[in-house]
């Protein structure tokens, strides 16, 4: 696979059993991207049985096996490429630490394919995942209306499902112009890599075309610099070297920078990337850099580096919209779990639950509710227990989302609406 194509992180979302894994298998199979070890294993078995050929069913068995071992849907990446892009399939919602990985950037999805089974239509997790996708900032959505083979490739059934999904998208204020609908069968291979004769009433793009024609993710170089610090090292001959990934803006040698909330700063002396000195780093670059006058104990993981004349904001309190995914009981005012935002992990108190939001309409369902629980969305006011640098998602999306963790699991995800410094 070529490394010189732009990368896209793709999330495959949708209700359980609607065909997400089958679609992943189909995409890997059709693009010749089935992992080497699977091919090797298959060759051995085929030779033993005296059979040739490389069947799609075999890929599926293998993916199923791996999934049972907990391997597949991990960020042990599934990858494939089209003419334009190199795609990495990221973990999907409901599996392990999807939300946390997405927020901390380990598997931030650029776009998503929503799988909806034609024989079932919009189901509870379809709704949940669409809401989550919107909360987490996915912009373009490809909707695969799957299992068309089961409904005899009927155009009327396809249209019904499309209209159901459009209603759902409108309810969560997702622009339906940014969604593309395709009738597919992941299992039979219809409209995935080749146009299917079974759907002669459909003349839109097939799935791999639609993926290939997604817009390239725009690196946010024009925004202010935001570089969350992952680690701080001391390197002999250089001094203190904070390390992290540039989320937005540019980092140049000679720039005057500020670290917040540690509230120290200075001039950037050197920037190193892949063991080489560079004059500039851009969004997506992982860098180590050195700032005049900054010692190892002056800054820490969770600090955000930004321009000295427009430093990252530090929240006294902030308001946010959250979605509760799994909480064993109820969340009330005063609850203090750990918030994970970029590289920071800070205990924060939910001071007040200001309104319950109807996840299927985005509207206020109840002002000042006594509690919220799994499945609820709400507007809340939050007070970090230690200084936390965070930004409104509307201004800097990369630094405006967070995951809420408690008892070893991700219980909620959210986006910052406003920051009170
Ligand atoms: P997931 O839970 O969303 O990952 O769903 P799976 O990929 O595991 O699929 C659930 C079941 O639906 C499996 O038995 C698949 O073989 C079947 N399936 C998936 N896609 C199709 C399809 O396009 N047509 C048919 N007939 N069955 C499908």
TrEMBL record:
This is Elongation factor 1-alpha. It is found in: Cytoplasm. Residues 5-221 form the Tr-type G domain. GO terms for molecular function: GTP binding; GTPase activity; magnesium ion binding; translation elongation factor activity. Belongs to the TRAFAC class translation factor GTPase superfamily. Classic translation factor GTPase family. EF-Tu/EF-1A subfamily. Mg(2+) binds at residue 21. Its EC number is 3.6.5.3. NCBIfam families: EF-1_alpha (TIGR00483), PRK12317.1 (NF008969), small_GTP (TIGR00231). Its main location: cytoplasm. GTP hydrolase that promotes the GTP-dependent binding of aminoacyl-tRNA to the A-site of ribosomes during protein biosynthesis. One of its GO terms (cellular component) is cytoplasm. Keywords: Cytoplasm, Elongation factor, GTP-binding, Hydrolase, Magnesium, Metal-binding, Nucleotide-binding, Protein biosynthesis. It comes from the Archaea. It is an enzyme of class 3 (hydrolase). GTP binds at residues 14-21, 91-95, 146-149. It catalyses: GTP + H2O = GDP + phosphate + H(+).
């Amino acid at each position: 696979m070529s490394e010189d194509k732009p990368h896209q992180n793709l999330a495959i979302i949708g209700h359980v059993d609607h065909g997400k894994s089958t679609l992943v298998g189909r995409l890997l199979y059709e693009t010749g991207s089935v992992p080497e070890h699977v091919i090797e294993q298959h060759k051995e078995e085929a030779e033993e049985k005296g059979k040739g050929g490389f069947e799609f069913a075999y890929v599926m068995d293998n993916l199923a096996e791996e999934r049972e071992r907990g391997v597949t849907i991990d960020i042990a990446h599934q990858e494939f490429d089209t003419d334009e892009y190199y795609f990495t399939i990221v973990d999907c919602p409901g599996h392990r630490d999807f939300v946390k990985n997405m927020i901390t950037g380990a598997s931030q999805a650029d776009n998503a394919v929503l799988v909806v089974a034609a024989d079932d239509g919009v189901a509870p997790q379809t709704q949940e995942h669409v809401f989550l996708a919107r909360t987490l900032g996915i912009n373009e959505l490809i909707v695969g209306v799957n299992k068309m083979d089961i409904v005899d490739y009927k155009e009327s059934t396809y249209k019904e499902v499309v209209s159901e999904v459009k209603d759902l998208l409108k309810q969560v204020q997702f622009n339906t112009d940014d969604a593309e609908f395709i009738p597919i069968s992941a299992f039979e291979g219809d409209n995935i890599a080749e146009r299917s004769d079974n759907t002669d009433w459909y003349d839109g793009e097939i799935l791999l075309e639609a993926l290939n024609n997604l817009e390239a993710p725009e690196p946010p170089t024009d925004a202010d610099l935001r570089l969350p610090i992952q680690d701080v090292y001391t390197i002999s001959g250089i001094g203190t070297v904070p390390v992290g990934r540039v989320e937005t803006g540019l980092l140049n040698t000679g720039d005057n920078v500020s670290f917040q909330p540690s509230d120290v700063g200075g001039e950037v002396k050197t920037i190193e990337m892949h063991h080489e000195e560079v004059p500039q780093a851009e969004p997506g670059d992982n860098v180590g850099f050195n700032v005049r006058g900054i010692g190892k104990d002056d800054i820490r993981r969770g600090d955000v580096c930004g321009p000295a004349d427009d430093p990252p904001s530090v929240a006294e309190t902030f308001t946010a919209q959250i979605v509760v995914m799994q909480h064993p009981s109820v969340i009330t005012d005063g609850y203090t779990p750990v918030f994970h935002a970029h590289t920071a992990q800070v205990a924060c108190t939910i001071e007040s639950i200001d309104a319950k939001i109807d996840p299927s309409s985005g509207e206020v369902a109840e002002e000042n509710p006594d509690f919220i629980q799994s499945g609820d969305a709400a507007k809340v006011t939050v007070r970090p227990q230690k200084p936390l640098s965070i930004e409104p998602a509307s201004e800097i999306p990369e630094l405006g989302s967070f995951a809420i963790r408690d008892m070893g699991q991700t219980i909620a995800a959210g986006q910052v609406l406003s920051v009170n410094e």
